[in-house]
Amino acid sequence: VFQLMEKLQFLLLDTPPSEITEKETVQYQESILDLQNLLHQKYNGATQHLLKRANTCEDSETGNMQAVIKDKNVTFCIWANLKKKVRFRNHLFCDAEHGFQLPKALAVSSVAVRILHTRYDHLSPLWLQCQGIPKLEVSDSEELTQPSKDNVEEPEEEEKQAREEPNVPSEEGVCSDGNKSAVSSKGKSNGIADGKKTAEEEIEKSETLDIPPEVQDPQLREETNEEAEVMTDEGVVDLQRFVPVGGVYHIDALQLPPQVRQVKDWSVVELLNSGLEVYPYPPEEAEDTTQPPIQITLRLPDNVLYFEDPVIARWDPSGRQWRTDGISSVTYDTQEKSVTFEMAAFYTVALLQDTHLNLPYRAWELQPTGTDEALLAVTTVFATIQIQIKGNQCMLSSVVVEEKDVLSHLSGKWTNPVNLRALLRNAGVNIFPGEHSHKYVSVTKKAALAEVRAYQQMALMASAFAFSWSKWNQAAGQEQVVFKVSEHLEADSDKDWSLYTFNGQKAQKLKITETSEAFAEELEEDSEFHSTLYHMLKDSASKEAINKVETASFLFIDVVYQLLLATRVLTYS
Fold this sequence. Notes:
By secondary structure, this protein is an alpha+beta fold. The protein has 2 domains: 1-131 and 235-354, Chondroitinase Ac, Chain A, domain 3 (Sandwich); 363-567, no CATH class. Helix content is 24%, strand content 24%. The protein has 13 helices and 23 strands. Helix 1 (2-14) packs antiparallel against helix 2 and helix 9 runs antiparallel to helix 13. Residues 127-209 and 218-230 have low confidence and may be disordered.
């Protein structure tokens, strides 16, 4: 059941918007909810079975029953109040290091407490829509973000000219679109290395560029999403800003069922038709509405990074949303890696982290390390993340926090970009901006035309050239991107960086350096501007570098492009 849910989640993540209908998306989400309900029916059946025989598993010290069951996806903690003594209202599950303190009224009642920690979150299948998770493929829409009028003709005039002069190529052409891209893994002419069409031909044949929704002009998107941005309830968690990390904790108070009795050689137990019942707290008939809270202690999972104290939120099943009201007195023990808080009732809770903690990046670098191999390094305020690329796969090479290598259980495993992105996000390392990230991160909003075309052409050249961040990228304004480039044929060789600027239709080498006093668009001496970054770099490249570019695998190019588009290093640095 769990594997099927994972497959459905992957389909929602990986399928381009053009290939899935809204009806299919809703069907997948409903299927995930149905499967989740099936899983919890199994957990409830197991809970009821254990509680019926609670008196046969009494703890020698307290006389109450407690059990902890673990596997890779779930930690199941159950406690039964058999003796009903106030002095035993505190309990710590030693094997899990989760615990609770009950109000006195519950400590003398026939109640059981269950803490079910699932390391996945299928409670909120609409989370994907709220988050605006980037799709890694270019959409089928032919709409372009309007570039500067100084640099490009009006779209209507371009379309008219294309119809009237279908056989007249531009001087050098522009970068290929999403359906014929040299960095797309679809179609027969996807790569430089297919032997039928060179990258140069692919670039020159294209006249349009499809812009993925997450890199469209934020100003245009803000107008259409204006109503959605209004948060009317302060208690509701904004899932565009926060994300559950480390799974979900289902904390329940349950009615203790009739216990097994030994009658001579028989084991007798009363059977109830109602099944497992919730113990109501606070009591519905209580005159005093301010009932004492329940205190909960949770051990933070070791396989997740919390860069700041997480936000505790409870699940509201009626509104299908996370809320922070009803949670109070939150304290963190950094040494013990635990959090203690009080709840007004028994809730399902999660630990939430700011989605944009690692944005903007402090630095990034992409460099080739061998034939169809490269290394992408992203440095944030908290960590340095290195991703290795080889052929059609990628893997987490390392995550370094305060000079310590962490998340070793994730590193060294080859996978695809979509899976890698999900693994890092689930581990609390989010370096993948979403559709709404521009509202929460202070960056210069780059024109989608320049940004996406830059990623495509950087991927084309990644087998022989290293790329890196430049401090002048922010100063260059919205219409163009600025970055460092160096031919790099040996993995351990020094880099001779030069600065380049690109606006989607014009690439040029700049005279300034990183140490210059101010940004200036003056061209480097004896250099010319080109309509593509590909032609710009090819003009000054060595024969060996050109050969590496022309023989690079299109699958390698596609993985590089996917990771650049997912991290969006040219906007969020």
